[in-house]
Design brief:
Layout (H helix, E strand, L loop, with lengths): L7 E4 L8 E7 L2 E6 L4 E6 L5 E3 L7 E3 L5 E10 L2 E8 L5 E5 L12 H6 L6 H18 L15 H11 L5 E4 L7 H15 L5 E5 L4 H12 L4 E2 L2 H8 L11 E5 H6 L1 H9 L4 E4 L14 H11 L3 E5 L8 H11 L7 H22 L6 H10 L6 H7 L4 H17 L7 E2 L12 E8 L3 H13 L5 H9 L1 H8 L10 H12 L5 E4 L3 H15 L3 E4 L5 H12 L7 E4 L14 E4 L6 H8 L11 E8 L3 H13 L9 H17 L5 H24 L3 H8 L1 H16 L2 H13 L1 E5 L4 E6 L15 E4 L2 H6 L4 E2 L5 H12 L5 E7 L8 E10 L15 E7 L12 H5 L2 E3 L2 H10 L1 H47 L5 H19 L2 E13 L2
Parallel strand pairs: 10-15, 10-16, 11-13, 11-14, 12-13, 14-15, 17-22, 18-20, 18-21, 19-20, 21-22, 25-26, 27-31
Antiparallel strand pairs: 1-2, 1-5, 2-3, 3-4, 6-7, 7-8, 8-9, 23-24, 24-25, 27-30, 28-29, 28-31
Helix pairs in contact: 2-27, 3-4, 3-26, 4-5, 11-14, 11-25, 13-14, 15-17, 16-23, 22-23, 22-24, 23-24, 32-33
Amino acid sequence: MTFALGQRWISDTESDLGLGTIVALEGRHLTLLFPASGETRLYAQAEAPLTRVQFNIGDEIASADGFKLLVSAIKQQHDNLVYCGSRLDDGSYVELRETFLDHFISFNQPQDRLFAGQIDRFDWFTLRYQAWQHLHQQQQNPLRGLSGGRVSLIPHQLHIANEVAQRHAPRVLLADEVGLGKTIEAGLIIHQQLISGLASRVLIVVPDSLQHQWLVEMLRRFNLHFAVFDQERCEQALLDNANPFDTEQLVLCSLSFLKNQPRWHQFACDSQWDLLVVDEAHHLQWSEQAPSEEYQRISTLAANTAGLILLTATPDQLGHESHFARLKLLDPARFHSYSAFLQEEQSYQHIAALARPLLHLETLDAGQTAALRQALNETDISAELSALQSDDSELQQQAQQQLLSQLLDRHGTGRILFRNSRASVKGFPKRQANLLPLALPEQYQNALKVHFSLNPTLSEAERLTANLFPEQVLQQLDAQSTWWQFDPRVEQLIALLKQHKHDKFLLICARAETAIALEEAVRLREGIRAAVFHEGMTILERDKAAAYFAQDEYSAQLLLCSEIGSEGRNFQFAHHLVLFDLPLNPDLLEQRIGRLDRIGQGADIQLHLPHFVNHAQQMLLDWYHQGLDALEHTCQTGRSVFEHFAPRLLPLLAQPQPDSSALAQLISDTKALNQQLKQQLEQGRDQLLEINSGGGVPAKTLAAQLAAQDNDTALPMLMFKAWDMLGIDQEDRSDTSIILKPSEQMQGSYPWLGDEGVTITFDRATALAEEDIQLLSWDHPMVRGTLDILTTEPQGSSSVAILANKALPLGSYLLELNFIVEASAPQALQIQRYLPATPIRLLLDKSGNNLSAKVSFEQLNKQLKPIGRQTGSKLAGALQTAVHPLLGKATTQAEQQLPALLQDAQQRATRALTEQQQRLSALRRINPSVRQDEIDALQHKLQQLTEYISKARLKLDAIRLIVVSHD
């Protein structure tokens, strides 16, 4: 290397220092000043890790005086470079000595980095190339947005999410029966709408008791951080913004908060939301004369929000007028009159009746065939009717699906109402109730007598609570008492745990104090490992408790939950449930049992019910078991029956002594009403609607595709390589989980890692069993953030490698370039579906011939050898003059491929959106629930896409110089 004062060099090891100037040459040393950073470095001339900065003819360079120069010639003066050319601002000719180059020049372009000696490791170039390939595939992946949830791959849930989430501003009612996963369906829709860019601001409104459940479900299942808004939060946010609801993108609040606080409700209405989600929508009471205040609050919000998702497990047969009101929220223009809705519904029933013989592949008689032809008179269905008579079962099923699909299009609520029932969705376990009658201890008898005598004015609710929870009464009278030492329910629990010592048990009770005391009891008396889970713990503490219970080795046999344990968590890996006490709400009882009674449960559920005989506990148990049949079967009618009989049930439970005859009559009446309501539900089942909601064969195919994607090794291979390169420490936690931690070599921040690290898995079953472990999928923020780092940071954009091949002339070279076609557009247009970020790879020889079609990336990469940075820098410098013209040829060749790519993208967008538009337009003529604004949105979207696709640009993303060697 020849050094001279005034020359410009950059440090190979500290490129962030900027452009350096040689300010002193003393003996064997030189001093380099870096004006941009104010740093000075002393180097030995013979070993200086420096690269000379030399620009080429045709480059644009910046001077320290602020103007830019287009280089047309380069001269040498006293070992300094002088750049000659015209200024870009006024066109005048200037000569710029390299000493006066801009100190802040950065080498972001791949070719600049290459010639400036900023050579990246061999592996970085490979990883960057692979990241672009994966990004290209995932941006057009039809499963995008569906795979990221920590959920089981249940076909009907995936079908509903996929069907609804791809719509513009979806407005639907999710009305699956209890236990079929409405919350998961809503979460999948929210997640997919956010991932795809169709929505960015979401408001969820739920009952007070469900706020925590939704917060946890959205975070743990979908990695979505919702902010809970209440009085305090709104007042704080008001200090930062005129509208507190504008301070967050994802907001969760309670229905009672919006009802009781008109001021904050108005702020919520004034904020712009893309999607409004309302859980327990059956609480929105309505009549034409007197809609409830809750209904009016949600109605105002819904009118100002493009998308609306309502959730309710209560079917319309238990309140038809309110069912109409929910549909009215979804589309007020469509459902404007209850009387008109009743008339129109007759046609829905006619359509459903036509579908029944098709659903069961029954032979159609002449009357049914004629009715079917009349209903589908816009199309010729002769071929389908003939196929139904065929001996070919596959042809029969195809014809059945085609006819059912056409009938569904004519079903009035088929696009906006989704309802699955346990009768149509298989895979649920059986329940077995094990009743464990016990005598009420004398200590409790005495405590209740004292309590009632000292408090003669207790309300009915207070007397009832005392009878159902005598341990709480004893604690109030004597805070030091250890009730668990004599309570026979504790003896029964320990006996069960010892009898089934290899099985896991979930216990749910009403209060956190009870759960804590029970953990102490089993630990001190028998050394049984147990974990506690209650509302006084942080989310992290609850996660650890749930993980301790879920893991296979050195785990808790028993998880003791307060009532919060019946919300938001699923423990399908256990099949023993101990109900230490019973809630007074049938829905809450179903929620408790639903922690185990879910799709995916592999064994029959054993319900263990210790209770005190001849006592309020037994009365409530008998009413649930004999009257409602709510223990061994799902009880959809529970709330309605409870509300009807509460005036008779609650006084019985509050009495000091049980009234067996009154209870027997109540149970008999309960059983009769329950049977009547269940019969109404079964008669009102719309099997055509259930077939649509279940998704049929396509739904199963969707689940299979997601399972196949889970099992693909491409994602783990990419992430392991990225972690190695980015300096992320990896430690095996189990066969299927890994602990990631930042290392000393890690530069900058890494998404979702944190200072303490994080545990991850690629295995869905592991993530479902242990909720403190992150499930990595292509949709996970850590994976998307990693792809962003690998494709936008400079690492890997310039590289030099050796090709050891004696068949090629020694010293010859190849230039490998990766161009990216990319288009910028508003996220909601989902332009990546039609024009994803598309890599164009070129492999040029010294004559500019493109060899990429003959030599694949993988094929070439296997033959290459890495070289050191300094050697690579010297090779790049020596070949700079020869390589520079090739860059122009490469750009021209890449640009020649651009029109075909854009044309293909335009055709795909036109074809997809036009087909959707035509189908919706045809549907609208026979089914008014298709909204005109959906059709108009598709047309507008196509117009915008056409414009943005035409503006797509080409950029050089990475360059690799390959030099032939015979070593």
